[in-house]
Amino acid sequence: MKTITKFLAPAMLVAMLPMGACKSLSPKGTEGKDVAKEAVLPTDREKIVQPVSAVYTSEELSKGVVKGDWAIETVNGKPAVGETAPFLKFVPDQKRVYGNDGCNIINGGYQYNPADSTLVFSDMATTMRACGMPDITDMEVHAALGAARYYTWRLNGDDYYLTLYDADHNPVMELMHQNFQFLNGTWLVKEIDGTAVDVPDMKMVIDVDEGKVHGNTGCNILNGSLETDMDAANSISFQKIGLTRMACPDPNYETQLVVALEEASRAKPLKEGRVALLNNQGETVLLLERTSDK
Question: Which residue of 83, 192, 280, 287 has the smallest Cβ count within 10 Å?
């Protein structure tokens, strides 16, 4: 199921709660009994369409800038669990933070200072949708945001992590950076499943913000959707791939291209303007090269 997250201004939220006071409510059945919903673990989070993700520069990293989209991985040392994927989006120009606690939409203000690594949240508001299972970590998310006073960065492989600490420097939340903007643009298909492809017309245009992909298989026009997933950094899914139906002369890589797109589950930026699309086993199914051609 595809979950579309909309960000609400504070005036549109139905409740303003002090940090740590978010209450998880259980929906009632027709006979007044609690109806439990299956919680979403970090390993099986629902897909979520992201707004524009921030792309960090080396200068911003050195300055400790806090911006962009972050998946909440752990809260108070345990996995963040929700009916939807818990995440935060930092918008420095607005000094606002938006997101989801795993059940309800949240937003508020935030301030940070790289000089002393301080970060605090204020005036956090939340919707009050009835939540499902009582063991989701929405209340813990609010408590952790209320306790946050400091932050640090760390790089683990290709992934950036942000850790929030309380006043006693105890870790209260760990978040993983989500960045999909490197996929935006026009791409030549250079390899499919390790086989070199030399078809000048085989191109794809990816629009992350619109969640769309279109292009040419070298014979037919291709259109589809792109979904991003908060389960892992740069986790993607191409859906609803459609083609025109012209007969294609050899060499014809059309079927292999569509299968590779359907298998792609992660995107990895490479050097020299290239991107690898990987399957669930970490194998490269498509190698793309950026082009200025349309």
Answer: 280
